[in-house]
């Protein structure tokens, strides 16, 4: 089973328990040792209300919560205020409390990894964190090699998580035009807007127009998330 097939399998999960197991399996397949997906219905809500799906040590999770580490963790602060991913570096930890927190985290093998912030259209907030056993330059090189896959994965996970949070029922039938299906299929295999415009013999503006309509139909924020949903629903194949 390749990466895309695993993402489609994640999209097709019918309950949060099986979905959680698939997230961990997919992260391992990608080469990451531990993973955490946290989602909350509003960035203003207290973090203890978040849905947390993780393979982190329960001892570490209990200590993290008991000591209120979310309030001093610079990765959490970054995720609240940015949409860009952050690779874990010692330089992020500046204050004495943050440095003590870092040393304790390292004792649980949290030395290297990456976190992707998740921000939804109705102020939903979350993070996808992936830990890797490599360190320093090797870890950073490995993470950079996986950024495209992680970006694809986090879009799918976030949309699925929002569905669980809102307790959505089955979505209504989604109707795509032949042109939309063609564009979505090329998007699913990683073609850029410029490349698709050349394949379809039309302007980039026309492609952007169709992609905007596609995202609207699937109620997602990115073309990747739309592609994953379309594959899971059997609307396109790659």
Automatic annotation (TrEMBL):
This protein's record includes keyword Transcription: yes
Keywords: DNA-binding, Transcription, Transcription regulation
Top-rank taxon, per record: Bacteria
InterPro entries, sorted: TF_LuxR_autoind-bd_dom, Tscrpt_reg_LuxR_C
Alphabetical list of Pfam families matching this protein: Autoind_bind, GerE
Domain HTH luxR-type: 169-234
Transcription recorded as keyword: yes
Coiled-coil residues: none
Cross-referenced PROSITE patterns: HTH_LUXR_1, HTH_LUXR_2
Protein name, entry field: LuxR family transcriptional regulator
Organism of this sequence: Pseudomonas farris
């Amino acid at each position: 089973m390749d990466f895309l097939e695993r993402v489609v399998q994640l999209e097709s999960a019918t309950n949060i328990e099986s979905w959680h197991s698939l997230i961990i399996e997919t992260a391992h397949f990608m080469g990451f040792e531990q993973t955490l997906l946290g989602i909350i219905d509003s960035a203003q809500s207290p973090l203890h209300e978040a849905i947390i799906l993780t393979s982190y040590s329960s001892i570490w999770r209990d200590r993290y919560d008991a000591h209120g580490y979310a309030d001093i963790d610079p990765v959490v602060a970054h995720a609240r205020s940015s949409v860009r991913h952050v690779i874990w570096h010692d330089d992020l930890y500046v204050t004495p409390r943050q440095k003590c927190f870092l040393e304790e985290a390292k004792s649980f093998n949290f030395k290297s990894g990456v976190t992707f912030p998740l921000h939804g259209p109705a102020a939903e907030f979350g993070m996808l964190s992936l830990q890797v056993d490599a360190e320093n330059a090797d870890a950073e090189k490995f993470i950079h090699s996986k950024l495209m896959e992680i970006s694809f994965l986090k879009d799918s996970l976030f949309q699925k998580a929002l569905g669980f949070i809102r307790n959505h029922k089955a979505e209504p039938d989604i109707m795509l035009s032949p042109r939309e299906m063609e564009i979505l299929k090329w998007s699913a295999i990683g073609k850029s807007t410029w490349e698709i415009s050349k394949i379809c013999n039309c302007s980039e503006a026309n492609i952007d127009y169709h992609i905007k309509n596609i995202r609207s139909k699937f109620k997602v924020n990115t073309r990747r998330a739309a592609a994953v949903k379309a594959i899971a629903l059997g609307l396109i194949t790659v």
